[in-house]
Amino acid sequence: MKNDTIDLAGCIRIGAGETHAMHILADLFAELHSRYPRLTVELFTGNADTVEEKLAHGLIDFALMIEPFNVEQYHFIRLPETMRVGIVTRDDSKWAQKSGITPDDLNAMPLLVSSRQSLNRYDCRQWSGGKVSAETMNIVGKFDLISNASHFIRTGIANAIGIDELLQLDTDHLKFIPLEPALTLSAVIVWKKYRLLSKSSSVFLEELKHRVDGESSKDKLKR
After folding, report:
1. Distances from the Cα of 152 to the Cαs of 44, 53, 89, 137, 212, in angstroms?
2. Alpha carbon 134 to chain centroid distance?
3. How far apart are CA 204 and CA 21, in angstroms?
4. Over the chain, what is the mean pLDDT?
5. How far apart are CA 134 and CA 216, in angstroms?
């Protein structure tokens, strides 16, 4: 690291939805903070539309988004981890013992779905070969953050479509069942084009690029 960052200070502002991929950014910040104790972080959690709006208005420096997401108007880095899509259900529901949720299963169950407006979060029609759509599903309601939806799932009134490895779902009485055939999503960290980043954000970004490039190189060696 160059000497001009020895006294690095400042706040890195990150917006994100609920995703396990946040640990990549958390680990990176922890490493930087150990070198530069005056470095701070400000976290904002919200659904994709709210996070993108904050990014557009310059209220955050980076946004961690789950694809599908229109990255064309931003600079972006695709993170190496992928997330499985499935349903969150009560552990005593009729679907909890299944190893995978088929298109027919998805059409048969009462569902809570994401209220994300910018893009359809999960392309169920393509995944199912046309068997599943908004018209065929039994949609009981919509949610923005799965943590709140989990309270409704516990009542047994509905299940929710979501992604795996979310901390707030690692609890008694809830179970994640992946879709079958498998459907996976990637996460991207995005930042605005034509906007000058602060020194602290620039160092954070360079370290992230280095880390992601390193993981990509490891994957290529394994093939």
Report:
1. 24, 28, 10, 18, 37
2. 22
3. 16
4. 87
5. 36
User: Given pLDDT bands bounded at 50, 70 and 90, which one contains residue 48?
Assistant: confident
Q: Residue 63: is it exposed, middle or buried by C-beta count within 10 angstroms (0-12/13-18/19+)?
A: buried
Least Cα distance to 42 among 169, 207, 204, 208 occurs for: 204
Measured torsion, CA atoms of residues 218, 219, 222, 223, in degrees rounded to the nearest 10 = -140
Residue 164, pLDDT score: 87
Residue 134, CB half-sphere, CA atoms under 13 Å: how many? 9
Stretch 194-213: mean pLDDT, rounded? 94
Neighbouring C-alpha atoms within 13 Å toward the C-beta of 49:
11
Residue 1 confidence class, pLDDT cut points 50, 70, 90: very low
CA 213/CA 79 separation, integer angstroms: 10
Written as six digits, the tokens of 175 are 């179970």
Cα 76 to Cα 129, 184, 187, 209: the distances in Å are: 30, 19, 10, 10
Task: Return the H-helix or E-strand segment holding 47.
Answer: none
Specify the amino acid at residue 210. Answer: H
The pLDDT tens digits of the residues spanning 11-42 come to: 999 999 888 899 999 999 999 999 999 999 99
